[in-house]
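== Polypeptide entry ==
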Amino acid sequence: MADQIGLGTTLAIDSTSVTNAAGWTTNATSVSKIDSITPPNPSGEDVETTDMSASDGYHTYIPGLVDGGEVTVTLKFDKTQEATLYALIRVVASFLITFPCSSKWFFPGYLKALGEAEVTKGGLMTTQATFKVSGAPLFTAT
């Protein structure tokens, strides 16, 4: 596959229902003016299993639960969109990130944090939204 740029990547939010990727509804609202997106970053926990009989002095582990991570989106500031997103803080919803190649990240979650990422006297105002993944995210390479 050829190298790609992120131009055209989208984020949609469906706060009317939490469903799985196969049941994604068309009730979703598109988030506009996206500057950057950091997709989900699932990571597993390590559960230590070392006991007193470990003669080699090394810890032993088994894989534990997986945390779906967070999604961070930087947006150009828009007061209407800011108000819409603010109303979604702690509201469990379904999210869909679609890349230009049509691959997708689907995840259930909620808006965890929202705030101005940067406001300078001569620069573009931006907002940063952080979404907490709640459950298993799903990546589909299409």
About this structure: The chain has a mean pLDDT of 89.
